[in-house]
Amino acid sequence: MPMNAMIECVPNISEGRRSEVIEAIVAAVRAVSGIRYLDTSSDADHNRSVLSFIGNESSLRQAILALYRESARWIDLRHHKGEHPRMGAVDVVPFIPIQNVTMAECVQLSRDVAADVQAAFGVPVILYEEAASAPHRRNLADIRKGEFEGMAHKLQTAHWQPDFGQAVPHPALGVSAIGAREALIAYNVYLNTNNLAVAQAIAKAVRGSSGGLAHVKGLGFLIEERNQVQVSMNLVNFRKNPIYRVQELIRIEAARYGVSVAGAELVGLIPQDALLESAAYYLQLEGYSRDMILENRIQSVEGAEGDGL
Description:
11 strands, 37% helix, 4-stranded antiparallel beta sheet, 2 domains, alpha+beta, 9 helices, 309 residues
């Protein structure tokens, strides 16, 4: 893998309430040479944080060990409660190819990191998405089903033996999923009701696994702080099913229950094209292309002038 490879890592940790804990874990990652830290998104109701940073193979391997080391100081899943399903203190660690790196190289990195984590902390690891060792292990929701409390039994079954480590969850840190994937969008839509059954029905109608939109994963939650329900989603391929299509399907389904969309939020970062595509749709722009964006045109002109020097 070239030294100028750029890989994004977006680990999810099972802590979204104690700001001092989140700050300590983020600081441990930031301290690793070669890491460029991008974003932290925390949710108290879900009791979960999503971290985002970029680096090369060497810096990311060090950063993930630092992440686990600091998480192990603070997080004990035996005392953890939250709306979002979870099975590990560091629940999931995906590697995403950004520049000068292939998906195959990210898959190999995920395997190397999984071996590092298991050896250093005794946490069983299941590889997922592009790194999955079997087709039934690709989907994170399937891996996480049963959550921390059910992992002791699940790991004993033939289908769910860990790829790294013994078939026994770490008593405090649980089990981790580590893998490689394309960029996804974590996108939540709030509805102006506190009826959880409505959110769950809409999530079922939207997600691909129950007959909705392909490349969309979704669950319904009650967010007590807002007294509203939320359709919480991962959009794993925004080019094949863009945000506006998901948004409009939720709006249509909500109308069946006399409910409307109250707002939406992003968790973490989003590719620019995903927002531009939805803006073009809602503005009904004719003949739209990325070259119509001022900043994109400036970059293309500057690049062409540079090539001519």
